[in-house]
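---------- Forwarded message ----------

FYI, see the tRNA pseudouridine synthase B record below. Original note from H. follows.
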Amino acid sequence: MTVRKSWRRVDGVLLLDKPTGMTSNSALQAARRLFSAAKGGHTGTLDPLASGLLPLCFGAATKFAVDLLAADKTYEADLLFGVMTDTGDADGSVVERREVAFVASELEAALARFRGPIRQIPPMYSALKRDGKPLYELARQGIEVEREARAVTVHELRLLGFSGDRCRLRVTCSKGTYIRSLAEDLGRALDCGAHLTALRRVAVGDLAVAQAVTLDDLAALSEAVRERCWLLPPDTLLQSLPAVTLDEESATRFANGNPVGGGVAPGKCRVYGLGRLLGLGEVDDQGRVQPRRVIGSA
């Protein structure tokens, strides 16, 4: 007889070290089962090829997932020059091979072209949609459509290693940057082509993969130990914002969706009161804290 899973309310953030070969949603569902979490979401997709930091939100923390989606991300990427694939990474089929004839100084010069604000054409093998259909579905049908270049920012692009036709890069970039496209563009700049052979996300905003845990390590623990040792509070995603603590009357008003006084400098803030995190607020020019995302009481 099949035993039905008993879901429960779980509020918090899990920093997961996603393995390669697994989709982000599969990793999320596996973690949800381990915590018996009724509600969960992730904060930015990692391709199956990629490993590394995948922050997961359960319960109340899902209200703040969108804020982490906009955070800068840091990757370590392995590239193979002279070989191009239809997907821009090692999961695709080889479509062209070229001779690799550049030297390290030429690679460094090419990297300089991709630092700072750049425009990047998203890959066909992506989840972006055209007329309601993901581009990757069209790509699998052999259909290629024109994509508009998008403005992104590469804050750091550092060469970690280079040998023959391979290199490793460290990239810190803004939301919406495709590392596969960056690899292809770099190969194009060097007139030999390239594709991504491995990708590991090492940071999302202020969160680092060194703080993360694997699914295998979680599975080896009891549910109680998992929650005590690895589940972080919902305000983990808001630590870069100033904190505002309200008195009981103002806290009750804020929790009911009303603006209150007591703000600091204008901008977003994390709001506390009634002995707990109340949610995300935004201080206006009059010093009022406007509710933006409010956590309901348990």
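H. also flagged this: The chain has three domains: 12-70+206-236, 73-204, 241-294.
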